[in-house]
Coatomer subunit zeta (Paspalum notatum var. saurae), 242 residues
Amino acid sequence: MPSSKLANLDHSAPSSPFLRSCAGGIHAGRNRSPLSPALQAWRLARVGLSPGWSRGGRYTMADFSKESCPSVKNILLLDSEGKRVAVKYFSDDWPTNASKLAYEKSVFTKTLKTNARTEAEITLFDGYIVVYKFVHDLHFFVTAGDDENELILASVLNGFSDSVGLLLRGDVEKRTALENLDLILLCIDEIIDGGIILETDANTIAGKVATNAVDGSVPFSEQTISQALATAREHLARSLLK
């Protein structure tokens, strides 16, 4: 399947709990363009739900079997040369470090000449769905099985790249990313747990990452992200000096 744009896909639905984002990507909600019954049924089938759910209702974990729960196989952040910045794998499809590195090199090479700087793109690669996006000298990738919902994967990708942008205060480049690698890895942990998608809203992800490292005495709503990160680094410095 050739690369295709995801700009017109709806990945802006609320995502806490995450299943609400599935609903937002599957059927047209308030103020959204209506989807045809056939397209609604197709999207619902991709996440294991019956077409009846497209006529309103709420999603719960009971509606998803373990096999149909949206999941990803890896999430990658590479530099402009295809080298690792931050990666996490949630599948045994790549059992060795050598196989992981080979996959990263291959997917980087395949997508390098595409125009994924203004919007996310999608491709089918080695039997996997890969959604990806480039921001300055950083390349963001999300890989999943070919039976996963592309809309959900796009929301994961955008949640990852946007939350990194918030935490790095817009300075999304390799140097800054390496200086804040711990925050980026925490971002991934907030988005994915064992391959299962937990959260895709960038503000929520960045907020959780920042507040996890600071005292609970000041609510995050009363702090800016930069203030929270400064406090987190101060606490880290103190712990290293002990």
Remarks:
- The radius of gyration is 18 Å.
- Residues 7-40, 49-66, 215-222 have pLDDT under 50 and may be disordered.
- The CA atoms of residues 136 and 237 lie 30 Å apart.
- The chain has two domains: 19-63, 74-207.
